[in-house]
Design brief:
Blueprint lengths: L12 E4 L16 E5 L9 H12 L3 E5 L8 H14 L3 E6 L1 H15 L23 E6 L11 E5 L6 E5 L7 E4 L9 H19 L6 H23 L4 H21 L3 H13 L3 H16 L3 H13 L5 H11 L7 H4 L2 H17 L12 H13 L6
Parallel strand pairs: 1-8, 2-3, 2-4, 4-5, 5-8
Antiparallel strand pairs: 6-7
C-alpha cells in the first residue's frame, strides 16, 4: 500500500485553449493593481502583451511592470522586484514568461508578503515558506513550454554571490491561476523550443520513476512524455504550428502537475550543479544528461521495467537511445563538452559538482541514489560522452 500523501494539482483555476487571456477580465481586487513580471521585455512588443494590458484595463486595474528577469534568476533580481512591489502594493502578481520569469515572480511574492525576510537561506530548505496571499495572489502565463512552473510549488533561484542554484519548493508558492494561451509560445526560436521541450520530457520521465510515484502522477507524466515525442519535433520544425504549440504547452503543464507532487531525480540534481557553475541553460543541460541517467537508473529492475514499458508505447526498443535520436533531430548535442568547452576547468570542478548534486533536493527521490564517487563518474561520463579515467 502507498503511504497517504496529499496532492495539489494546480491553484484555483487552470485556463487553456485559444483566447484564454480573456480570463484576466474576471480578476477582482481590493486595490485593483496588477504587477506584471517579464523577462527581457521582447514580449512587450507582441500583440499578446497588449491583450493582457487591455483585458486588465477592462477589469479596471492599474498596471506596473518589472522587466529584465534574467535566465536563471538571481536573488538580487528577486529583491529588486519585491521592493518595486512594496512601493506599488499590487493585489495580483502576473508572471508572463518562461520558467525563470515565473520562478522569480514567485520568489518576489514571498519577499513582498514578508518584508521581514532578508536572505535566500531564510526560505531555503528546511525552512518553510510563510503563509502568502495576505497581500496578493498570483497568475502565471507561460510563454514557453518547459518548466511547468505555472502549476508548480517550486522555484530555482541563483545565489548572487556564490552562483549556486537553490531549489525551493513549498505548496504556498503554487500559483492561484494558470493561463495557457498557445499562441503566445509561437515566437520561441527553434533552439529554445528544443531545450524547453526536453525540460518537459525530463520532468515527465523523472516523475514517472520517482520514489514517490503514484498512479495519478504516473497518468499525468506518461501522457506528457507521449505528447513530447509526438509534438516537439513539429514545434521545432515549424514554430507557427499552433496544434503542436498547444500540445507542448499542455504537456508542460501535465508534467508540472506530476513532478510538483512526486518530485524529480538526479538529472535535475546534476543540471542544477552544472548550470550554476558553468551557465548551461537548464533545459539544455537536462536534455544532454537525461539519456545517461536513464541508463544509470536502469540498473534498478523496477525502473528498467517502467522505462521499457514506456519505450514500447513510442515504438522504441531502448528509451535512452530514443531520447538520443530525438535530441539529434532537434539539434541538441550528445555531451556537455560540446556546450561548455572548458575541459580543464570542468575536470577540476567534478568533485564540487558531485557534492552539490549529492546534496540537491531532487536526489532523494531518484530510484537509485549514487554516492559522491558515483556522481563523479556519471558527471565525467556526461561531459565527455565516453568513460574516461580520473
Amino acid at each position: 500500500m502507498l503511504p497517504m500523501r496529499p496532492m495539489k494539482l494546480a491553484g484555483e483555476h487552470l485556463i487553456f485553449g485559444e483566447n484564454s487571456l480573456e480570463y484576466l477580465t474576471q480578476l477582482k481586487g481590493t486595490h485593483k493593481k496588477a504587477f506584471i513580471v517579464l523577462g527581457g521585455g521582447s514580449i512587450k512588443k507582441t500583440e499578446y502583451f497588449k491583450k493582457i494590458e487591455d483585458y486588465l484595463k477592462i477589469a479596471e486595474f492599474k498596471i506596473d511592470v518589472f522587466t529584465n528577469v534574467e535566465p536563471d534568476p538571481s536573488f538580487n533580481t528577486v529583491l529588486k522586484g519585491a521592493q518595486q512591489m512594496m512601493e506599488f502594493k499590487p493585489d495580483w502578481i502576473i508572471a508572463v514568461g518562461g520558467g525563470s520569469v515565473m520562478d522569480a515572480a514567485k520568489a518576489m511574492w514571498v519577499f513582498y508578503e514578508h518584508p521581514e525576510l532578508k536572505t535566500l537561506e531564510q526560505i531555503s530548505p528546511p525552512n518553510p515558506i510563510p503563509p502568502l496571499r495576505k497581500k496578493a495572489k498570483m497568475v502565471c502565463i507561460p510563454t514557453s513550454s518547459g518548466t511547468g512552473s505555472e502549476v508548480s510549488r517550486s522555484v530555482v533561484i541563483t545565489d548572487t554571490e556564490t552562483h549556486v542554484k537553490h531549489g525551493i519548493g513549498d505548496m504556498e508558492m503554487m500559483p492561484d491561476i494558470a493561463i495557457l494561451e498557445p499562441g503566445i509560445t509561437t515566437s520561441m526560436p527553434p533552439e529554445f523550443t528544443a531545450a524547453t521541450g526536453m525540460d518537459v520530457l525530463t520532468h515527465a520521465l523523472e516523475a514517472l520513476v520517482s520514489r514517490r510515484a503514484n498512479i495519478i502522477a504516473d497518468t499525468l507524466a506518461e501522457r506528457s512524455a507521449l505528447e513530447v515525442f509526438e509534438y516537439l519535433p513539429r514545434a521545432y520544425e515549424d514554430g507557427s504550428d499552433i496544434e503542436a504549440r498547444e500540445k507542448m504547452l499542455l504537456a508542460s503543464c501535465l508534467a508540472g502537475m506530476a513532478f510538483t507532487n512526486v518530485s524529480l531525480g538526479i538529472v535535475h540534481s546534476i543540471a542544477h550543479a552544472v548550470g550554476g557553475k558553468f551557465g548551461v541553460p537548464h533545459g539544455l543541460a537536462n536534455a544532454i544528461i537525461l539519456p545517461y541517467i536513464i541508463e544509470f537508473n536502469s540498473q534498478d529492475p523496477n525502473t528498467s521495467r517502467i522505462y521499457n514499458d514506456f519505450a514500447s508505447k513510442i515504438g522504441a526498443d531502448n528509451l535512452a537511445n530514443a531520447i538520443r535520436e530525438l535530441n539529434k533531430k532537434i539539434g541538441i548535442p550528445s555531451n556537455l563538452m560540446t556546450v561548455i568547452q572548458r575541459d580543464n576547468d570542468f575536470e577540476s570542478s567534478i568533485q564540487e559538482l558531485a557534492e552539490l548534486a549529492s546534496k540537491d533536493g531532487c536526489t532523494k527521490t531518484n530510484p537509485l541514489i549514487p554516492d559522491v564517487n558515483e556522481f563523479k563518474r556519471q558527471i565525467r561520463l556526461i561531459y565527455f560522452g565516453v568513460e574516461r579515467g580520473q
